[in-house]
Amino acid sequence: MSNTAKAPKTEARPTPIMVPLNKLIEDPDNVRQTRSNDGIESLADNIHAEGLLQNLVVRKVKGGKYAVTGGERRRTALNVLVKRKHMKASDQIPCLLITEAHTSASLSENIHRMAMHPADQFVAWAKMQDDGLSVSEIAQRHGSSTRVVEQRLKLGRLSPVLLDALKADEISVDVACAFAATDEHKKQEEVYESLKARGWGMNAHTVKSALTGDEVRSTHKLAIFVGQEAYEKAGGEIRTDLFEDDVYFQDIELLNQLASEKLEAEAKQFKENGWAWIEIAFDRDFNAGSKMRLIHAHEIALSEADQQEKEKLEKRYEEIEEAAEDVNDQAISECDEIDQKLDLLRDKSLAYKSEEIAISGGFLSLSHDGTLDVRLGYVRREDDPKVSAEKRKAAEERANMPSQLTKSLRSDLSALRREIIQASFLKSPTIARDLLAFHTIRSVLSVGYHKTPFNLSAREGQSAASVSKSGDMGKFVGRKNTEKLIAKLHLDCFEIVDEVESFEAFHALTEKDKIALQAYAASLMLEPQLNDDPSLDPTLEKAAKLMSVDVSKYWTPDSDFFTRLTKKHIEEIASKVITAEFAQRHAESKKSDFAKAMGSAFNSGGKTTHLNKAAIDRIANWVPECMEVASV
User: Fold this and answer.
1) For 375-494, where are the alpha helices, taking DSSP H only?
2) For the chain, what is the mean pLDDT?
3) Which terminus of the chain, N or C, has less C-beta within 10 A?
4) C-alpha separations of 76 from 43, 79, 575 in Å
5) Contact 369, 318 (CB under 8 A)
6) What confidence tens digit (pLDDT) does each residue in 95-122 have?
7) Are the beta carbons of 263 and 271 closer than 8 angstroms?
8) With contact defined as beta carbons under 8 Å apart, do 520 and 426 qualify?
């Protein structure tokens, strides 16, 4: 028995032949059963421009035909050229004839080939342009659009550092596209090295942000507001991103200047129409006007023509809604157009009186979509005839007067004052309910920002944030009475887990019980304020006046309070409230001793100091001025 290895069986090598195109058919045994005709037109363009660069692999079948074992997409593309009349069906096509193992040959044709790396393709297209071919010629030869060619040429001209990174698969094609946002190789390399050094990984967004940080996208509100035409007319340069259809405004300083000038022109127009003042800003300041009185526009009658147009549009809107069984794009589009026209007519139906315009102004800014954001009807205190000269003067003096109380002490005093008003709410629930209802309803029905003494989004747990951080700093009375009032409330209906049952229980309560619960909720939502706060809400002071709130009946300061004052301030209070002799007697004492003496005098009702009735009354009624109820 021979141990000699058996020689492998060899197949006959393929034979080059020429076959008429109309004799070539699809091979039913081709291993590629899943096909797509995507790109066939482009392949036909390429074959027409470059010729058939690779022979088809065929085998003989019945009827004098040749089945295409390898190159079916090329055969299909050749038939496209016949339809375009760029060649004839009888034209000879170079082929390689195989006689055996056609399945193996078909498999080899499809799996033993590697797609070209994108980086090599980009560089090759750039070289074609360097060799003299135009963008349109390259597009025609490779069956691509001119835009695709421009994109690939852009990528082919990236920095060699980035092309090497792309070939090594250190960056993706998406990231490479992002680097193409600039043509400067040095800038590309600086950003690449910087991001690479961070070790965070690279993505297209990060790269683009780093490269375009000193540019403004055309979708930015400033660019929309100014407009590309006006910007370029003023000498501004733009850059187009081939990969995302984005346009970038490169001169930010010029863009800001043009936007400011356009806003100023708009403001000038409002002033010419009689408005007292107009402030402009690119971004809306939501706090602007918060301390001003806001006048709302009044409804006026439309002209006869506008009224007829309004009725016609409303009728058409109803017809569309009634006729449309299913929502469709055409109906939605028409309804949107009608809405826009009705909005313009609604604007026409609102106006300000001339005397209101003369004393008020407004704010102009830009919305996110580049349109004007106009807010009018704000009256400054100095222009407001409703604010008397005396009140304005007093308010200004109070605002300009440096406070003798520290910020933390004021915070603690406002928390104590809040607790006193909370107790008054429970004693006068109708007033508390009316104040809460007024601010809740106004916040829904009115346009714009309004001051409110309530945190209308409050939860009970938030009330802890308004508790004095240093304790009572004195004697606080009335808490037990408040606790008794709370204990009487029907809070149990809110302990029912089922929401419907909970509501039914609440609904069954008497009106008096409901008002009491509303007053309790108002007390929890109440924001702390002193009467000299810049953002003071006058309605709370008015409610406190109606409830006859007297802070001194609830709270008496002790030495802890006086310790937090300056010695000079303690001396001033002692002289004014107790006696000048008492103040002089303790003036040479240490501050701590002076504070203890003051605390003793206040908490004994002045009895320890043998004062007269007038001094005793002053002590009994004294609290820091900022804690008193303000006159409004």
Assistant:
1) 389-400, 407-427, 429-445, 479-487
2) 82
3) N
4) 9, 5, 109
5) no
6) 899 876 554 455 445 544 545 677 777 8
7) no
8) yes
